[in-house]
Amino acid sequence: MKSLARLTGALYLVVAILGGFAQLYVRARVFVPGDAARTAENVVAQATMFRLGFLADLVQVTCFLGVALLLHHILRQTSAALARAMLVLMAVAVSMICLNLLNHLAALLVATQPAYADAFGGTGGSQALVLLLLDMHRYGYLLAQMFFGLWMLPAGLLVRRSGLFPKPLGLVLIAGAAGYLADLFAQFTVPALAGTLAPFVLTTATVAEVWLLVYLLTIGVRTPRPAPATV
After folding, report:
1. Nearest to 222, CA basis, from 171, 170, 174
2. pLDDT above 70 covers what percent of the chain?
3. Nearest to residue 155, comparing CAs of 219, 58, 75?
4. Phi/psi at 6 (nearest 5 deg)?
5. What is the pLDDT of residue 226?
6. E strand residue ranges, the chain
7. Helix axes 191-201, 167-189, angle to 10 degrees
């Protein structure tokens, strides 16, 4: 079980590294909110890096599905129902991210293929479309955040009950889920304040995920096996 948990931690680390590269480095470098011309020019100038960002996201979301399957296997003896709920929520998040990657790819195609400029009434039209597609990707990421938050609720309950992890980690996972959801609703209801609120509401989620990742990678799980399955 410890080796399986460490494999889960290794996959989770890949998710963190590649997801951070794609979202916090690649798209952050090319996307200029409200400026279609600069955004499209950045995509063209850094097209290779933009493609790498797409591939990084594709790999990391596949690894996240692996994390979901392995966590389900590790925790299902604690509660089959909660483990299934966790797996389903994680699978929904993976599906949404994969579909949302089409917006990333479409922005690249529109920015780099001249035929699209002609089809959309010239350079200005195609640049506006690139910005729209990247805006759609950003909002798609936010929508997927609902399920990236929700899976931490059953995960937190399972962690607390299983005896395989420190019980406080379960509480932090549950609080992290609330933080993700709070950020999501702030982004859509009070966008002017969302940037100010984000560091506060997302701190617990970050701590929870880093703690879980590090624990899986270094400790694996505690020696005592979980109690018999309950529904």
Report:
1. 170
2. 94
3. 75
4. -70, -35
5. 47
6. none
7. 170
